[in-house]
Amino acid sequence: MNGCPMCNKWEVEPDLRIAELPHCYVLLNRDQFFPGYCFVFTKDHVTELFHLEQEVRTAVMEEVTSVAAALYRLFQPAKINYELLGNMVPHMHWHLIPRFATDSLWPRPIWAEPHAEVHLTPADYAERIAKIRENLKL
Prior knowledge:
This protein is of the alpha+beta class.
């Protein structure tokens, strides 16, 4: 869809690509203040879960779950946060965020207060992405 930042995110940020799944794309968030923070977003431009046929909706949720499990295996967080809002970007996408009791915003939501972004080197992004891929068990 024209003007939707999620519709072209896969093409615009190839250095952050983790996996192309049957129904979703998985990208590492450039800001790694929360290590392992990823986006899982539908290939098709939809805004609501109920816009998907039941079979596709089930498959999408399995994909989201498999990414969350991979993040959990790799990072061993206290909790995985799942954010599916869409108010600012109306394209179905999840923010999957490993959370640790030691992070400065624990236990509050990640948007509770601003934080300085953490950007990695290209090599560190590539290494993190490779480790997440390994844990996805594709």
